[in-house]
Structure formats: structure tokens, C-alpha cells
Amino acid sequence: MTRIQKVAELAGVSTATVSRALAGKPSVSPATRERVERAARDLGYVVSATASSLASGRNRNVGIVMPFLNRWFFTTAMAGAHRVLTDAGYDVTLYHCEPNRLDDPDGADNPRRSRLFADSLLRKRTDGLIMVTLSLTAAERTSLHGIGKPVIALDRPQEGITALAVDNLAIAHTAMSHLLELGHTRIGFVGGIVPYDLDFHVPLLRRQGYEASLVDAGLEIDPLLMCDAEFTVDGGYDAASQILGAGEPPTALFAASDELAIGAHAAIRDRGLRIPEDVSLIGIDGNPLAEVFGITTIDQHPDAQGAAAARELLKELEPTSPHAAAAVRLPFELVERRSTARARD
Amino acid sequence: MTRIQKVAELAGVSTATVSRALAGKPSVSPATRERVERAARDLGYVVSATASSLASGRNRNVGIVMPFLNRWFFTTAMAGAHRVLTDAGYDVTLYHCEPNRLDDPDGADNPRRSRLFADSLLRKRTDGLIMVTLSLTAAERTSLHGIGKPVIALDRPQEGITALAVDNLAIAHTAMSHLLELGHTRIGFVGGIVPYDLDFHVPLLRRQGYEASLVDAGLEIDPLLMCDAEFTVDGGYDAASQILGAGEPPTALFAASDELAIGAHAAIRDRGLRIPEDVSLIGIDGNPLAEVFGITTIDQHPDAQGAAAARELLKELEPTSPHAAAAVRLPFELVERRSTARARD
DNA sequence: CGCTACGCTGTAAGCGCTTACAAATGAAGC
DNA sequence: GCTTCATTTGTAAGCGCTTACAGCGTAGCG
Q: pTM for the complete prediction?
């Protein structure tokens, strides 16, 4: 006897009615619903997710796919999505998509990733997917389309996939404007000349914004003022050190993320320079760490980004609910702290 | 016609054989297996996880339950577990368990958490659970036992639950020994006089280790040298500031985590003190951030802890595989960097 | 040569739910 | 009173797999 039958028996109704009552369907009389709920509670009955999925075709489970499982930006966005999804009654299963390296753009040598797209994601465990900052190969996109389920890409527009992305060019522009308005003309850029890997184009966009702002301001682009960096504190330290040690030093540093900025902060101090007296410093993200160091930043609210992506997915998953038709905007804003100041004359 | 039937037809066998072949069962002749695999590949067939779960009773999915979804220690441990589990063919679904606050120890006012234990976790979506640093109420433990599935607790021993935990007393002792051997006698403690919340007892254990070390060394415990802190960089900054500002300042600070230590690092510098000349500083965790600041730490390899928990769970999930009978040890070690030095006379 | 043993495959009964459809009930309208 | 219709409930057919059991062919053995 299946478990639902026991509940049906106790409540004196059919299993169909139990199913309907527990699913909150409208076509159940209040009295019956009450009896069923009591019976379920008394028996400690909870609907089996698998049986329900198989019968209904809906999993109440969404997948979140991320290239990094323990970096602040990613986990914070994930947490934002997670909250929205669980509040809507969904579970979330987390998939790790290893980035494809530049020397292996098709992921031929990336077995875990291959399995992800050829297997795990196709198992019909989820009703939809949120992919964070990933760049998919054509084959992967095809594979994803094959499952016929809604996919939202966060912070990386993808051909044929609904995407939510913050305007990285505008972010970079905002940061640069702040520095330029303070009178800085020698501004260094920390992070992202060459993409670290194919699944993380954000650095590139931010550098383009940096260069465009320079050009707009009539300043020239000095390669000595730019340095590649992995998107970590370490990377920021090394890149900033290199910029500060080469040629005429900058009076301001624009780091493509807060983690890079924190590394740069340490590098600047370790060279005996003062912030902001000798060097102004600005980052991007809204990482709480930056606050401790008093680093000015552009907060892009990753938590809210994740939440927005989740709501967007939910809209596709539950067409019944009212569509908030408005296009989603992912806001960001300058947060001035003590790491930026007027340039010395 | 169900999808598996198409494969069966194409391969010229029964669905039973397809199932067996694709599941890697031994009782399939090589030739048949080959034909089935080809047919599946040609049709782009992948077994439906839900149907398979319902029929077999195994989900190939484990749940990881964490109090914080975006803090370094937790996500790093989770990533370690995730890798082991996905390599073993499991998916992982992530559950957020909101910590119970001190003023609400039973979680009466914690609806998300109630739903987690009364509903989400009971839906039979997972084959087992890993709970990270959580303290369960009696009711929650009962509820968990009810589902009759293996549960591993990481870093928080629980009555009636298999637990893996690093020896926090020993960790604290190692850190203190390092400081004491360098001749420090006024050592402050940053973080964890009173538990931040009921689900995170680690701070308490570390403080106990701190006090025990002091006593062992014949030193006295000075309340002015200890300060509570939330386990964040911010918290470390504030707590360290307070300790440095009260009474006779310490010559060394022991922070209960690397994040706290980084905050303390900033606080020390902001007071115009030098590290390590004026104040030595040691943290705990192995957070890569600490490296950038040259902070000495006790690395407890959270990634490895997560992986160990996952392997432990896998052992219970797949009794067929050979038991590595050895008890699991979670190692840690002192990593000396430039933030600790001999005390001035 | 008959019998057991073994390896491989097929048959078919579920796994625990959901839901289309049918049926029963009662209220409302004429 | 009879029809119509909405509301509530029940009946039963799956959802797409897995697996116990049975069956078949061949090999080994006395």
C-alpha cells in the first residue's frame, strides 16, 4: 500500500482527493481539505518528490550551473536565486561547470564538463536552469535546447538563451568617471587584458569600458598601465605590483573587481605608498570585504542579480502567475569610500 | 511509447536489457551492451532520473545543508564534497538552513527552517545528507531519523548522527603554542565568547582552546583581551579595535578565523601599529586571502573536509564498495607567514 | 545422453503519485 | 418536477523506468 493510500484511508477519501488537497488545488471542499491535512500530519506524510515528478512531469527543482563554487560573487548570486526559488517551493541542485581554458576552447579535454552537458543536465531532474557567467559552446547550446526547458543566463548573453546581464561597460564607465572627475589622468587597470578563461568574459568588458572612458576623456591608452590578473586577491596583488613598478606610476588604479582591488590595496601599501594620498583605488562588485579596507567600489548587488534571474525563470516555469512585463534592469551604483581622492596637482 | 522503448527497439532487445546495459550491470553480454549503447547515443537517450528513482528507490542525489551559502569556509567545504559526489555520479541539491538565533533556540520563529525539516528534506529527493556545522534541535533530529537515510554531520558532532569534525581544541592549542613559543604572554582572542548563533559552535571551542592554553602556560585569563565577534572581516575589525583600545594592549592576537584575522589586520594597521613588530597575528582556516596579507594561520583544509564527508556518505550509500575502515582524520597544520614574530622583551 | 549449471535475455509487475474523465450531488431556473 | 450546471469526488490509466522471476540455449559432467 502506497503511503498516499494510508492518508486517503485515514481521511476517508480517495487518493486523488488527497493528491488534490495536498497540492492546494481549488477543487477540494474546505472540510475535505481539512480532514486530509490532518490525516497527513498525523501520519507524518509528505508527498514523494520523485513519484510526483514522474506523474506530473514537473520536478519543482531548478539547476544552477556555476563555473566556481566558492567565489564570493558566484555564491552570493546563487544565494539570491536560492532564496527566491525555495520561497517559491523549489529545490535547487547545483552543478559545477568547469571553465574551458583558452587552449581548449571546445572542452575536448574537459571530461567533467562534457559529462555535465551530455548527461547530468539531461536527466530531467530539473524544470529549468540558471547559468552564471558561462559561455557555452555551440554543441552545449544545442544539447541544452534539446531538453526543451527554460534556461536563464546570468551576466553572459548567449545566443538563443534568455539572458540577464548587468551593463559592464556602463559600470566601468561609472568607475572611470569618478576617477576622471577627481582629476586623475594616469589611471591603471588591474585585471582582464586577456580573458582568464572562456567562461568569464566580464573582465574583457570592463577593460573595454576602461579604454573607452580614456579615449572619451582624450587620454591615451598606455599598455604599461594595464595588467592581466586572475580574478582573485592574489591576482590583484601581482598585477598592481607590476603596474606600480613599470614606467611612470599611476595616480589611480581601477580594479575590475573588489577582490582584485583588495590585492591591489595590499600591493600599494607594501610599496610604501598611501591610499588615497599617493594612489586612489576603485573596485567593482560590492564585496563586503572592500568596506573594511575603505575601498570605493561600484556595487552591482550580485544577490539581487541572482534573485532577478530566479524570478525570471519562475515566470517561464509558472505562466499562470502574473507577468511582470517590465524588462529586468540590474542596477549598480558608486559607493564612495576613503580609497579615492582628488589627484595631486 | 516511452523513450527507453525506442532504444530497445533500435537495439533489438527488451527494455529490461536496455536498463541493465545502461546501468552497467554485469549480466549483459558485451555485444548487446555495445548495441544498446550505440542506440542510446544515436537517439540522444539519457535515462530519466525521476523514473529511475521511482522504480529503483535510489535517487543518486545527495543534499548538502548549510547555514551560510556564500561564506568561504562553507562553500569551500561544499565544493570539496561536490567534486567527490559528482565524480561518483551523484547530483547535489543544496539546502539552506537558517541558523537559530540565541533568543529563539527552538526556531519557533524561523519558518524557512521549519519548512526545511518538515517538508523539503522529507520529500525523498535525496539518498543522504551532509550537514555542515549545524546544531539540530531534538525535533529536527527526530525528523531526520524518520527518513531513514544516512546523514553525515561535518564539524559539529550530533547525537545519533555520524560526524566528522576537526579537533578545534587542538587547533586552538597549536595556534597558541606558536605564539607562546615566540615568547608572547599577553595574547588577545578575537571572536567567540558567546556563540553568534546556535548553529555555529566552532568559535566557542576555539576560545576554550585559547583559555586552556593560557592556563597550561601558567598565564591568567584577562577578559579585556577577549572580544566577541561575528565571524566576518567586519567583526574582526571591530573586536580587534576594542581589544587594542582597552587596558594594556596585547603583543599578539589570536583570531578564531582568517576572516576575523584579516579584519584584525586592518584594525591593527589603522591604529598605527606594525605587524609583526608591535603585534603578532594568527588566524585559522587556510583562507587564501590570509596569504595575501601574510597572516600566519592554521590551515584546516575545508575542501578536504567536505571531500571526506562526501566519501563517508558514499560509504554508507554504496556498501558494496570496499570500506576504507580507517577512521577519518581531519588534518590541520600551522602555516607560518610574516604576521607572527618573537615578542619584544 | 541426460542432467545440472550458468550466462544471458525477456516478461510483467510494480515504484507512488497525478489527472483526464466520469459520476454523483445539490442548487438554480423554468 | 425536470433540466442544467457547477461543485466535489472517485475511477483508473498512466508517468518511464527497474528488477524478481522465468525461460532459453549452451556447456560441462558423470
A: 0.93
